[in-house]
């Protein structure tokens, strides 16, 4: 179904195939409530996936995450990620899940590999404001110890 919709609508990049060819123009933009790109005026295709396709997509993301963790040589990572998957399966019906680790590491260049927790809460608040999500956030960390930037941990 997904492949048919992509092909029917000219591919995944405004009619130039899935990846496209030629020179790309990359810039920030917005999408209207009708699905029109306000930057280039193209109508974006709506692709609805069934439960099987959605599960395949989730499985592929999990496989990528596990592969990345394995490359980090962490013995505990597979167990921790599996525990998170199990917890999410039991408790999760979320509109958005924010990867605090990636936000906390964004544009960080600390020699000791520090992590800026002070970037996480503003990011979550920004998502809440920009999307009008009416959700309460919670914050959790994996068991691995965190190294903070010189500002120390924020008051969350």
UniProtKB/TrEMBL annotation:
Cofactor(s) listed in the protein's UniProt record: Mg(2+)
Q: Would I find Amino-acid biosynthesis among this entry's keywords?
A: no
Q: What is this protein called?
A: ribonuclease P
Looking up PANTHER family in the UniProt record yields:
PROTEINACEOUS RNASE P 2, PTHR13547
Q: Name one Pfam family in it.
A: PRORP
Q: Which GO terms describe its biological process?
A: tRNA processing
| Membrane-spanning parts | none
Stretches assigned to coiled coil: none
The similarity annotation says: Belongs to the PPR family. P subfamily.
Q: Provide the PRORP domain boundaries.
A: 32-109
Reactions catalysed, semicolon-separated, are: Endonucleolytic cleavage of RNA, removing 5'-extranucleotides from tRNA precursor
Keywords, ordered alphabetically: Hydrolase, Magnesium, Metal-binding, Nuclease, tRNA processing, Zinc
**Enzyme Commission no:** 3.1.26.5
Q: Does the keyword Nuclease apply?
A: yes
- What class does this enzyme belong to in the EC scheme? hydrolase
């Amino acid at each position: 179904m997904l492949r048919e919709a992509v092909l029917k609508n000219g591919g995944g990049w405004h009619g130039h195939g899935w990846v496209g060819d030629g020179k790309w123009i990359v810039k920030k933009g917005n999408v209207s409530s009708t699905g029109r790109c306000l930057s280039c005026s193209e109508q974006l295709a709506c692709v609805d996936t069934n439960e099987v396709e959605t599960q395949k997509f989730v499985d592929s993301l999990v496989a990528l995450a596990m592969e990345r963790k394995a490359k980090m040589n962490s013995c505990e990572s597979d167990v921790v990620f599996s525990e998170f998957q199990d917890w999410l399966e039991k408790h999760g019906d979320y509109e958005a899940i924010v990867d605090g680790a990636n936000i906390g590491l964004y544009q960080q260049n600390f020699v000791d590999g520090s992590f800026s927790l002070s970037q996480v809460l503003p990011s979550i608040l920004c998502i809440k404001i920009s999307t009008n999500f009416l959700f309460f956030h919670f914050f959790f960390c994996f068991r691995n110890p965190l190294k903070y930037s010189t500002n120390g941990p924020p008051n969350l």
